Amino acid sequence: MTWTKLTNLMEATDNLIPTRQISMISKGMENFEDNESLVTILSLEYPSANMGLAKAKKWIAKSFDLHDEEIDGDMVIYDDLGDVIYFLDPSAISTEVFSLASVVRFLNTEFNALNSESFNLFSHIIQSMSALERKWFIRYLLRTPRNGINEGTVLKVLAKHYDKTQAEVKKHRSYNNLTSLTAYYMRDETPPMILEHGTFVKPMLAKAVPTRKWPKNRIVDFKYDGNRYQIHRSGTNVIVFNRKGRVVTQQYPDIVESVLKYEVDNFAFDGEIYPINADGTPAPFQKLGTRVHSKNHAEAVEKCPVKWVIFDCLKIEGKNVMDLPYTERLEAMKNVPDQAERQIGGDPMAFYNRAIAEGFEGIIVKDASAPYQPGKRSVSWAKHKPPRIELDVVVISATYGEGKRSGVFGRYEIAVRDEGTYISIGWVGTGFSEADLIRLTNDLRRNVDSYKNNVFSFLPRVVLEVSADIITRDTNGNIGLRFPRVTRIRDDKFPQDVNTIEEVMEMM
């Protein structure tokens, strides 16, 4: 399969309704041999390149001997760098045939300085492609295809093309990435349902539900104010995954050292890492950024001590236990240290009051009989925090501040998911530290989509956690928040992880 054929398919399916899009891509796969690379590209299962919008504009300008200002001017017109590079020369034809496998290799390239071999490669690629190929190459290089295709789309495509049920494909996805899943389906083989060392499993998620909907047969855990991690060990090999599935082992040498002392082996544990004070009490969540963003890991260990707590077991001594009830998973790891504080039986609200008194976020009320459900936000895990609305949202626009905030974005328009798009629920401008504002501004500048009337609009990439007194609705039916405040920047979450408009309305 060639890149030309895939870009023609992307162009043909662009702006179609999801069902037609799924059908056409599934049908198109019949004509291609390298469906593995196709799925790798469509599902974005390649590392994020060090190529942001600003760098891409500069490199395109240099490749075509243009001034940076010319690219900026075109961006005002087209609002998309893919369209910009297309209209530089709409009649451009391919001078080289690129396989999908070669494009995957290009997308995995580390793009360094402007005067480097990687720039020469970049320039060669885009100058050798047709206008249409350039358009989609830039879009996928920036991981902004703008065609509505995401992991969920690819799952449905695989189900349709290989005559599987969506539930079956989702189950297989729990143990395999989409690329390897495709390889098994191409060979007409059943993908392994074995949790191998180093295979990341999407975490099960808790849901905020009224107390009347809490599981009756329950076990209650403390809710910790940290980041979610998954730790695998096989012998002396330890891998730490963040919530997004990225390997971050190097950030936590102290945790690795601790995990290597466990008397059990060949395991995968789900848990939380949170910052602590010198006396072991929970420190403010923001302090954890020292670990997450520091390049000097040894120094970060000293500046930000942390605690690792385990609240679930996916595999232990080589045995997958995800399908077992929660009680049996706990029994399997009963001799493992670093367990989350939990209560079996008793009054959950008394346990909640204790959690709050000790400086933790709240509690998670879990169904004792429920299996581990990868990637699912389930009422089997009910979270309960102090009575203030808390939401995960994505930033869609911002304006520069005034006074001390004149050099950074000071007000942020936030949104939640609504059937493949995002719907605004208002603006927020409080809860930030100066460091937060600088970091957010730098991150958002790399994702500018358009600019009009002093408002910058962004591709939905940056996730925030916000709290508010209540959720409101105006006379026109628009949803908003009363007294919203940012509680943290969620580096550990993808835009598709934010709350939905349906969930927001349930909280009203």
Provide an overview of this structure:
The mean pLDDT is 91. The protein contains 19 helices and 19 strands. The protein is an alpha+beta fold. The strands form 4 sheets. Strands 11, 12, 13, 14, 15, 16 and 19 form a 7-stranded antiparallel β-sheet that branches. The longest helix is centred in the first third of the chain and has 12 residues, at 117-128.
What would the keywords be for this entry?
about 500 residues, alpha+beta, DNA ligase i, domain 1, D-amino Acid Aminotransferase, Chain A, domain 1, OB fold (Dihydrolipoamide Acetyltransferase, E2P), 3 domains, seven-stranded antiparallel beta sheet, 19 helices, about 35% helix, globular
Residue runs with pLDDT of under 50 for 5 or more positions: none
| Main β-sheet description | 7 strands, antiparallel
Could you estimate the helical fraction of the residues in percent? 25-40%
- Total domain units: 3
- The end-to-end span amounts to 50 Å
Using the coordinates above, name the CATH class of the largest domain.
Alpha Beta
**Overall pLDDT confidence:** 91
Structural class, judged by helices and strands? alpha+beta
Helix count equals 19
Name given to the CATH architecture of the largest domain:
2-Layer Sandwich
- What is the radius of gyration? 24 Å
Q: What would CATH call the homologous superfamily of the largest domain?
A: DNA ligase/mRNA capping enzyme
Global outline: globular
Task: Give me the count of strands.
Answer: 19
Q: What do we call the CATH topology of the largest domain?
A: D-amino Acid Aminotransferase, Chain A, domain 1
- Indicate the proportion of strand residues: 15-25%
